[in-house]
Amino acid sequence: MSLILIIEDNDKNLKLVRDVLQVKGYATIEAGTAEDGVELARERKPDLILMDIQLPGMSGIEALKVLRADATTATIPAIAVTASVMQQDRRLITEAGFDGYVGKPINIKEFLDAVRSTLEERQPRAPQERPKARVAPLRGQRSGVSRERGVNERRGAVPERGIPSGGNEAASAASVGVNERRRAVPKARNCSPPGVAKRRQPRA
Fold first, then answer.
1. Does the pLDDT value for residue 85 go beyond 50?
2. Residue range 14-26: average pLDDT?
3. Are 50 and 79 in contact (CB under 8 A)?
4. pLDDT by residue (tens digit) across 32-65?
5. How far apart are CA 91 and CA 95, in angstroms?
6. In whole angstroms, what is the distance from residue 4 CA to residue 50 CA?
7. Are 126 and 91 in contact (CB under 8 A)?
8. For the chain, what are the domain ranges?
9. Domain 3-121 superfamily per CATH
10. Could you give the maximum distance between any two Cα atoms of the chain, in Å?
11. Pick from 13, 19, 56: which is nearest to 35 by CA?
12. pTM above 0.85, yes or no
């Protein structure tokens, strides 16, 4: 929640500004003179100061010079709230170092817009994340799917370990030759040598 210091000697204007800011969620502290406002700014270090120009004793312009000369309050933004809307008065306000001004009678919308924009300018902006650069594939480089498919195809072409290239055909041919030799050899079971007649068993 932003803290706003209101330096205003007119009670009606002070109440109007305070009520409008509090309704919008801002916290406020008030001072009726420039001297009190300078001391309050040093103690509380508000996020924004709303300063009336025509104040009893020290004027608003003189009070701002004191604030800017103090390292504690030099960076606090300040908006002048004044009924003086002449071009010369605006030039004096700008040259004094005010971050903006609001004329009286106060226009609520313009007043809130000035407060909001001044506070936003004071807040540090978060660094924007840079988009990640997309790396284009090299010329002739295949996609991941194509590379994986090519690796699988090359793996399928490699012969099994322990069997040289062409070993499958040689093994098949050897198997055929062995089977043919087995069919060519007659069975020796119950066969007599050539030239030897079987003996007849005597009859009973």
1. yes
2. 96
3. yes
4. 999 999 999 999 999 999 999 999 999 999 999 9
5. 6
6. 7
7. no
8. 3-121
9. Response regulator (3.40.50.2300)
10. 165
11. 56
12. no
